[in-house]
Specification:
heterodimer; A: mainly alpha; Ferritin; 4 helices; 66% helix; B: mainly alpha; 69% helix; 0% strand; elongated
Chain lengths: 140, 181
């Protein structure tokens, strides 16, 4: 059961890597490369965890559909906020389904860093409030 | 003067005396059993057996109170952060911090009360208004850093159904910290 939650989280990491690649055409911001690297690293460690637990990591999809079309800087940021919030929800899901200390630490780190990046992008877009009260919760 | 022992040996030696009146000479255990059964009635034995667990139940120490819920410390921390942020009317982001930390306090307290319903409906004590620190924004930043640390540390030891809640609180504090950065 924690394997399924980790597969879901891996799916959001694949989507995040893809989306950071997509928005790099619209955003000239060093935070794009930082976020892309962070998600790539997280994707790799997640795949390793799954292989270590005798599961086949789900492959990435050919493409992902952002919630709204990406055509300029603001819509690019909106797509980034969406993938970061998806990652928050997926990693919170892992936290709720595992008693494995190492996986919990890793899931909490993924949840926290995704929440911080989502806040950074919301702040960049001028969204108020920029913070997310309960990252990973649908209403948050 | 005859001693009782003399009397017994005399009785054993004498022929024709009723056997039932003689104490059994070579069975001291049987004598003991008979003595006990004469002095303690069956009813008293049954009563004593029935009352023993009751006596144990009445004399053992009550179990120690459970350790305090780790979430109630986090809820208190959230209330105190919210109180500190409320003071900073000059900083626009502080209102956001106050609102978010008040929401955290409410969610954490709800979970504490769900697991151990409070005995009375008393509201948790509102922390005393902290004195205005010399550099309030820096104080709020360090309070949030401390909240991220405390919540992250708590996640490791919590049951999984609470780990999600406290993990979100930790991430929410990190998010607030980013707003103040």
């Amino acid at each position: 059961m924690s394997t399924e939650a980790v597969q879901t989280a891996l799916g959001t990491e694949h989507a995040a890597v893809w989306t950071y690649g997509l928005v790099s055409a619209f955003l000239d911001n060093p935070a794009v490369a930082e976020g892309a690297n962070a998600h790539r690293a997280r994707r790799d460690t997640t795949e390793r965890w799954l292989k270590d637990h005798n599961a086949t990591p789900n492959p990435p999809a050919a493409a992902y559909l952002p919630p709204s079309p990406v055509s300029d800087g603001l819509s690019a940021i909106a797509a980034l906020v969406a993938v970061e919030q998806d990652a928050c929800a997926a990693w919170r899901g892992v936290l709720e389904r595992t008693d494995d200390a190492a996986l919990r630490t890793s899931a909490l780190d993924a949840l926290t860093t995704a929440a911080v990046r989502a806040t950074r992008w919301r702040k960049a877009a001028g969204t108020t409030p920029a913070s997310i009260t309960m990252p990973g919760v649908a209403s948050g | 003067m005859k001693t009782p022992t003399d009397g017994v040996s005399a009785a054993v030696g004498a022929q024709g005396i009723s056997f039932a009146r003689l104490p059994p000479p070579h069975r001291p255990l049987a004598r003991l059993v008979r003595v006990i059964s004469e002095s303690v009635s069956r009813r008293r034995v049954l009563l004593a057996v029935a009352a023993a667990p009751l006596a144990v139940a009445c004399t053992t120490e009550p179990p120690p109170p459970p350790p305090p819920d780790p979430l109630s410390a986090l809820a208190a921390q959230a209330r105190s952060d919210a109180a500190l942020a409320t003071l900073l009317t000059a900083v626009p982001a502080a209102a956001e911090v106050a609102k978010a930390r008040a929401a955290h306090a409410q969610l954490l307290q709800a979970e504490v009360d769900r697991e151990r319903p409070p005995l009375s409906s008393a509201v948790p004590p509102v922390p005393p208004t902290p004195p205005q620190p010399p550099n309030p924004v820096a104080a709020l930043r360090s309070a949030l850093d401390e909240s991220v640390r405390a919540a992250s540390e708590a996640v490791a030891a919590l049951p999984s159904y609470r780990a999600g809640l406290v993990g979100s609180v930790a991430a929410g504090c990190a998010s607030l910290r980013e707003v103040l950065a």
